[in-house]
Amino acid sequence: MSENEKSRATQLEDEGDIAADYLEGLLDIADLDGDIEIGIENDRAHLVVEGGELSHLVGRDGEVLDALQELTRLAVQTSTGERSRLMLDLGGFRADKRNTLAKLAEEIADEVKSSGQAIKLAPMNAFERKIVHDTIQKIGLKSESEGEDPDRCVVVMPS
What is the CATH number of the domain that holds 110? Predict the structure, then answer.
């Protein structure tokens, strides 16, 4: 591991620690239980909060989770002076979403391969689009995002 890679890993570990402290404070204020796991995934700090009743902190379609993630990123940025790209998952919501979207992308890829026609998916947030793009790329097809948020969507095309 190069010196630069060690430095980046240390920076991400620090982000994870700051984020975990912030989230522990929020959970304490809300009188909620949760175990926080800190890791590094795709060159980002990655935090998972498990245990307790956390579904109301996820919200409808992950809206509350997205807001908590932004607040946590801001707490890290305030502490480090650097923009954070950390990912937060509560109760496995994002992990389940990742699996569901990867499966959808595989099904759409099969349709595109058999029909030879591009397929436009429903609007998705950036996290969801990234999962679809990554899955489509692994399969060997092409995809691109089009439109403006919140109506931005993925189009899957034949290779």
Answer: 3.30.1370.50
